[in-house]
Amino acid sequence: MQGFSYKCYWKRKGIKMRSLDFVYPLRLPLLVEIADLRSDSPSQFLLRSVREVSQYMEIDYVVADAGFLNLDAIKEMPVKTIVRGKSNLKRSKELSNVPLVEKRYEVKDKVYVAYRVLKFEGLYYYDVVYVKGKPRHFIFVTNFEGDPYELAELYRLK
């Protein structure tokens, strides 16, 4: 299985540095770009980069942060994509109205205890609750359906 991660390292004085990294089974910077802030958006960069790389190698999934991504770009991705969200993520209000499903799943350093899933306009919104010292949760969006806990662990590879 091969996975990729998108990062935007910094923005300063009209330029930004961003990369597409190979994350599994080993970590490897794959594509680094220094661009001015007027160049394509992070969503366009990610979409363009994944399309370009997928011509030369098989990509099983892409992992990214939602802070700067347009969720419509996820629908256009040619591969499975997982995007970690924030509490102000679009559809998080609707997601919070979905009842929690209780299911225990233990991994090395935490215990997943519940999740909820909302399918909306071709995207899957997940809210996963886990205990690591104290109860916590995080939200992520995918363009494919999967086991919430396996997807959460896949995101941790990032």
Automatic annotation (TrEMBL):
GO terms for molecular function: DNA binding; transposase activity. It comes from the Archaea. Residues 5-157 form the Transposase IS4-like domain. GO terms for biological process: DNA transposition. It holds the Pfam family DDE_Tnp_1. This is First ORF in a partial transposon ISC1439. The lineage of its organism: Archaea, Thermoproteota, Thermoprotei, Sulfolobales, Sulfolobaceae.
